[in-house]
Fold this protein.
Amino acid sequence: MRIQEQYTTDVEYPSIFIRNQTPILMSAVAVLNGFNHHFPATEFAYCDFGCGNGLTLCLLAACNPQGSFFGVDINSSHIEKAKKLAEHAGLENITFIETEFDSLGEADLPPLDYAAVAGILSWLHDETRTRLLKYISIKLKTGGLCYLHYQSMPGASKTVATTMVTQLLADQYEGESSTRAVSAVTEVQKLFEGEGILPFNKMLPQVRETLSRQLMMDPNYLTHDILNRNTKPIWFHQVQRELSPNGLKYVGHAQAKLNAIDALYPTAISEPYRKFCEGHKDVTLREEVAGLLLNLPIRMDIFGKNLQKIDRDQSSNFRGLFLYDLSDSQSETVQKTKGDAFSVDFSDQIYEQILETANTHNGDVEVIIANCHREFGLEKMRQAIMHLVGTNKIVLGQKERPIKGDTHSWAPSKMDEFLLTSFLAQRDGAPIPSKAIGGCVDIAQLDRVLLALLVTKNPQLIWSLISRHGIKIRTLNGIPITDYTTFTQVLPGILNGFKQQRLPKLMRLGVLSS
């Protein structure tokens, strides 16, 4: 049998950025959920357990030069690539360690303010997972936060049965793990292609859709996701039980909208949840019920060590937290927003007042809370800010920096240069680190094209990337640019407008070096 004993090491995990691991976001979730926590004003220590190729950790290190960052991974090729990325980006506040989780006691890690474990909890043997969580809970300082991302029950139940069959099938094929994983999922999918509804599909109608979605994944990610012998979803109460003996308590979802189920979600979900919570105060029960009602396949939980709930209106707890509207105009921000399972009307006066106060007080959340909570109440203020964060209307971060010099003096950092050119093909925005907000900002496609032009000063290179990846850009009048000649003709006008309008805003947010 070739199913991996612990987790896959013969193919690399794809390089992806996990925004919810950002320290400032973890701190914001704790504060917005009423816990007594402050984002560190000075140096702090952060460790990513299972850091992969190091992209997330390198970006976070670039965002937070005052922090010391550590990445742990068992895969030597991951660690090698992570070190090269850090070196290429000129990062000096990051260390990578190659070791197994069972040998963490030998790693030279300092006491931690933040810890993150993304994805791999669902791929570990029960004993290894328990040891890892115990190690983290002991290593965290009092007041420290831990981010855990894992496949969760009951939502992940639709993959359990097919994963086992996929694993057995994959063992029948030859080649590297990623090839075997794709072949196995393809064969399982064929079982569900016939007409009529199979008895299995009557019980779990989403299985066919799930298999199709798996085939659209990066083959390397799919391999790590399903070809480990220990792959299995975890219940929230299991994680809570393993962390609580060492003082860690659940503080909230990293996905901010999930912290406001009773307000953001439809009545069919919010009403039974609200009624259940009225009769049951136990957090573990509440979270399992929320997972049941929402059928959550993935949980992104934040736990805190010995954090205390605040029982009074204490706006000073928000000190050091700032919010920013990253849209082009305020009119685009205050509107009705709908998601897959939630809806919120941003025309409500509370949202307008939050944004207006933010604009007049440089985004200082402490000031916003102090000025507005008497009218709306602290709890409603917290929830409204959570709505704005959860629906991507605003970004939470640290204090904004003023522009140094004018836009013509802009010079990219090594990290800016690498990201703007390497990630130009990403259609959904590529993260650029901001030292000002302590997190990453997604740069729009056209902005990235123009910034990459300013970096490389090579229109031909950028046009080749645009053509190769099918990137669509337009003139200032909205006319599609389809050839290199048109591209070079309209470039001066587009760049001039960009330098005058968008570039100063990006520089003010500290997204780009100035």
